[in-house]
Amino acid sequence: INAEYGGLSLSMSELCAVREWNLFIQGWKSAGPIGTVVSGLVGVALGMVVAFMVICSLVEISLSFFEAVMFGMVLLMVGCFMIWRAVATGEIQPPALYRGVMMVFGGLVAVSGVCCFMLQENWHVGMTPTAKVPIYFMLGTTICFSVIFGFGEIVNVCAAGCMQDHSGSPILNSPKQILLLVFLASIMGAAVGLVFGSLDAEDDIYLRGNFQRATHFSLPIGGIAGFLMGILNESLRHQPTSSPEDKRTDPYESI
Fold first, then answer.
1. Shortest CA distance to 174 belongs to which of 110, 94, 87, 86?
2. What is the pLDDT of residue 94?
3. From 198's CA, which of 10, 67, 211, 216 has a CA 20 to 30 Å away?
4. What DSSP string runs through 204-232?
5. Is the dihedral of CA 46, 52, 54, 57 positive or negative?
6. Is 54 exposed, middle or buried (0-12, 13-18, 19+ CB in 10 A)?
7. What is the 3 state secondary structure string of 114-136?
8. Is the pLDDT of residue 45 over 60?
9. Cβ atoms 5, 15 nearer than 8 A
10. DSSP 245
11. Is-above-0.90 flag for pTM?
12. What is the mean pLDDT of residues 211-221?
């Protein structure tokens, strides 16, 4: 199916892409250059902090059985909570695709939590990078996703407290923004997990050498992901809404 746009014949997928790009441009214009730059810089800082937290978490899971059990309990609880909220019924619910994505990621987080209970102390000793990388890939993805998802909740609460007059829109107020958060968090966590496992950073019990190398590579990954999240989210939160569903101010309530 083709449609006319500006005198050009475009397919429906191309037309949707053009429409989304125009919405992004409108959002950035509404936000202004200063707001967009500030959001990008805040995203860089938060992304680097999250990347460092993920690396430290992977070290603790590798070296201590107690820490692995603790992280397993947290991930299992977060995963089950996400699944429960995704299947819960209510008056206002996000699109089925959105709920399906959140259910899948909730299941992945829960599976990672169960895997943490199976890890013995110093389980990584003697394993080849080929065997360790898939485990760190999954753990990095789910830990990063859980941390950033929690950060999103905190940011919304803080923003609501700072905007008591309701003069501005919440930082995260639509399914599009949450899906963007899910996508970038997963990419960042997977990249950090791959770097961590490939460099054998878990064997560096004194947190020197390989650990510092992994941190050196991971922090820029977190910064780039955070910058993209900041500028894209700033556009999304200032885009015009055309339906009551788009105007929901707390998508977490329906997860």
1. 94
2. 62
3. 67
4. -TTS-THHHHHHHHHHHHHHHHHHHHHHH
5. negative
6. buried
7. HHHHHCCCCCCCCCCHHHHHHHH
8. yes
9. yes
10. G
11. no
12. 87
Q: What is the pLDDT of residues 51-101, one digit of tens each?
A: 988 888 888 887 777 888 888 888 888 888 888 877 775 555 666 777 787
Mean pLDDT of the chain: 75
Task: Give tens-digit pLDDT for 227-251.
Answer: 998 888 888 887 766 544 444 444 4
Residues composing the chain: 255
SS3 content of the chain, % helix, strand, coil (to 5): 75, 5, 20
Q: Which two tokens stand for residue 141?
A: 């993805």
The tokens describing 202, both together, are: 């878990």
Contacts of 61 (CB under 8 A, 6+ apart): 67, 68, 71, 116, 119, 139
Rounded Cα gap, residues 172 and 246, in angstroms = 12
Phi, psi dihedrals of residue 182, rounded to the nearest 5° = -60, -45
Find the helix or strand (DSSP H, E) in which 92 lies.
Answer: none
Per-residue pLDDT reduced to its tens digit, 130-163: 777 888 888 888 888 888 877 766 766 676 666 5
Provide the CA 121 distance to its chain's centre, in angstroms. Answer: 29
Query: Which secondary structure element, helix H or strand E, spans residue 255, and what is its range?
Result: none
